[in-house]
Every structure is written in C-alpha cells, then in structure tokens.
Amino acid sequence: MTEAEFLPLFDQYHNMVYRLALTSLRSAHDAEDMVQTVFLKLLSSPSPPAPGKEKAWLAQVTVNGCRDLARSRKRWGWEPLDENIPFSQPEESALFQAVMALPEKLRVTVHLHYYEGYSHREIAQILHISPSAVSMRLHRARNLLRNSLKEDGYGPAISEPF
C-alpha cells in the first residue's frame, strides 16, 4: 500500500478505530497504541482490504487486537489505571460509566451498533457470531443499562434511546 492510498484511509478512520479501542480497552493510552498497531497492520498487509471494505476490515482488526491484548493482560494480572474523563452534562458521565461497566462482549457490541452505525449482520461478521447473538447482546445491554441508570436516579429520560 502506498502512502497516497494509506493517508486518506488513516484520516477517515483513525477516530473510529480509536473509539472502538477505547470502548474495549478502557484506556486512552492503550487505545492510542491500538490505533498505531492497526494502521501499521494495514500499511504492511500483503493483501489490503478491497475498496469499500476498509472500515469493516479496520473494525475487525481492532476488535481482534483488543481481544488479544485483553487475553494477554488477563494472563499477567494487569490492572488498568483509573482515568477521569470530563463531561459537560452529568447524564453523559452516567451513561458513559454505565456503558463502560458492561461486560466486554456487550460493551463492544453496543459501541459498534450505536456509535459506529453497523447493522446486526455487519457486527456479526466483525465479531464472528450470529446476527441473533448480536440481537441478544444488544437486548441484554439495553436492559443492564436501563436498570443501572434507573438505580443511579437517571430515570426514563436517559434510558429511552436504548
């Protein structure tokens, strides 16, 4: 892949890769490292993704890289640092904390669907699961988020979109 082909892809998708990695890894520094890793794989790939399939390829490589990193950390007993992210509204912070408290499978599925706009079928391909499993994960995540936000006193106003 030439620099002329690579740079537009980086400019277009680096934020998406970062957000997905941040959702999975819960660390801004690790997400930045994952962005570098993913785009280095793209740059050095002997068979780059087909035109029009770059976003899905990058999402799949990101999910797989985050999964590998999490597996490695679990083996070595690594604990992430607590990062405080400022929000303009208390509701934003509550929603973010509720999403980040979800199990990783649910958290990544929610991110791909609500923040990246992937369909159930596309998420199923990225995560190597069935579309019905994607639907079930989203259903479970919505229920957990709804219950979590109600317990925190953020009633139906926040839980309606889910």
Draw up the topology in text:
Blueprint: H1 3-25, H2 28-44, H3 54-76, H4 90-100, H5 104-115, H6 120-127, H7 131-151, H8 155-159
Helix pairs in contact: 1-2, 1-3, 1-5, 2-3, 3-6, 4-7, 5-7, 6-7
Determine the strand fraction and express it as a percent band. Answer: under 5%
The N- and C-terminal alpha carbons lie at a distance of 40 Å
Dominant shape: globular
**What is the helix content?**
over 70%
The pLDDT mean sits at 83
Please tell me about this protein's structure:
- The protein contains eight helices and no strands.
- The chain has helices at 3-25, 28-44, 54-76, 90-100, 104-115, 120-127, 131-151, 155-159.
- The model is unreliable at 157-162 (pLDDT under 50).
- Helix 1 runs antiparallel to helix 2.
- The longest helix has 23 residues, at 3-25.
- The chain has 162 residues and is mainly alpha-helical.
- It is globular and about 50 Å long.
Short key terms for the protein model shown above:
single chain; 162 residues; mainly alpha; globular; disordered C terminus
Task: Write a compact overview of the structure shown.
With 162 residues, the protein is an all-alpha fold. The chain has 8 helices and no strands.
